[in-house]
Write a structure and sequence with these properties.
This protein has 160 residues and is an alpha/beta fold. Helix content is 43%, strand content 18%. α2 links the parallel β2 and β3.
Amino acid sequence: MSRAVYAGTFDPMTFGHLDVAARAAHVFEHLTLAVAEDPRKTLLFSTAERLELAKSSLAHLENVEVVPFGGLLVHWARKRGIHTLIRGLRAFSDFEYEFQMALTNRKLAPDIETLFLMPNEDFSYVSSSMVREIAALGGNVDQFVPPAVAVALKKKLAAP
């Protein structure tokens, strides 16, 4: 069975993330969307919240599972018999970082390949940090994120 993993913080899940996941799910028999438990980052949503939002957003894709992960992705993937990492490239500005990460991962795990997928151009400029900022400033994020994520953002950022 062909398997791949698409990992990220998904804080929050955007239509760009969904598009890359759908593209990967079309190419591979099984896709694991791995939600990072990364204590080095300040996150808006907890791991449990990000997992739930990802699961609800991807429920229409039958060959996708959503799970948490920690540690080095290549080690995590290898333990699960996954040999392809999916990375999304939104714009040329992403390329340098992603290229460096792919080469580092290749050095750490030569048996694991990185496959770059580009989202639909309608979503190529959307980032989670941009969505968080728009939502925090009271803007409408409905065109950038699934409905459940928009509701969660409004709830999370509502004044106490």
